[in-house]
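User: Fold this; tokens only.

Assistant: Input:
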Amino acid sequence: MICEKPLVLSPWNVDALAELEREFEKKVSTVLQLRLLPSLQNLRQEIQKSDRSKKKDVLLTYVTRRGPWYGVSWKGDVEKSGGVATNVGIHFFDLLMWVFGPCATSELHISTDSKMGGFLELEHARVRWFLSVDKNDLPKGYLEQGKPAYRAITVDGEDLEFSSGFTELHTEVYRDVLQGGGFGLDEVRPSVELCHKLRQQKVVKGDLVHPMVKAMI
């Protein structure tokens, strides 16, 4: 079975799916498409070979325009979609932990129906992140140019290219599953656990704050 992200909203739902896998001798796969980008695969290899004692400074920004329909649909219902962090960000959180290792601590600096931002201390990186579905958070001129989304990751101040081929990644994931591969429950669990934790966290003041968040608080 192939299920789009988010696979589930809570860690115990992953446990329930694992029991069903054992009972019916089937595999549940989900779509972690960013893992297939060559540039990100190369970065992961570099991190694994680098000095593991030195942490990278990472800045993640993802703004994608959503219309009024978003708030009144199931996507605007946290109980159904998991909110912004889960609905639009879970594959980015999966990517970050896949590349830089598990999350040790997290902070939440802003949390509304349309945007969230915070800080993650990963094994090999310090990550400031911001996610938004508010068109007003897009860079100036983006909408006029017909660009509905802005995604960017910098590592130690250098831009990481991960937009090329973005739209074809889902097809590659489906092809991999049909050939016997796919991303299973063990691989999806860390991002589900992190997003669940973020939904429970309270907003705090932090020292390492995303620049866009800093301008809002």
